[in-house]
Automatic annotation (TrEMBL):
It comes from Physcomitrium patens. This is Coenzyme Q-binding protein COQ10 START domain-containing protein.
């Protein structure tokens, strides 16, 4: 298990989030060390091969996050904050899908 560097050997940028990578399990976990505008930010990403008839067709990516703002605005503004956080996850997954597509094209997959 590695902390602070990626499986590719690149260093993570400094932040208040601890990131651990377990390349053998294809798992990245993260947790917030020092609260700021977020009280809690924890979760994981995992990647599993998507197999059919002993042939890998792609990958299954799972994401789980726990996000809790330090201060949740009352009423309708609280729903607004929830939508922003949900959209951030959606955009991250869209970026991941686009990067995977570019990788497939570049490697003739």
């Amino acid at each position: 298990m590695r902390t602070g560097t990626s499986c590719c050997g690149r260093a993570n940028s400094p932040s208040n989030t601890e990131v651990e990578e377990d390349c053998s399990k294809r798992l990245v976990t993260f947790k917030l060390n020092e609260p700021g505008y977020l009280k809690q930010f924890n979760g994981y990403w995992s990647i599993e091969p998507w197999m059919q008839e002993a042939k890998q067709l792609g990958s299954k990516v799972s994401v789980a996050q726990e996000v809790l703002p330090s201060i949740l605005p009352p009423g309708p503004l609280g729903g607004y904050v929830s939508r922003i956080l949900g959209n951030q996850i959606k955009y991250a997954l869209q970026d991941l899908a686009m990067a995977a597509e570019q990788f497939q094209h570049a490697h003739g997959i």
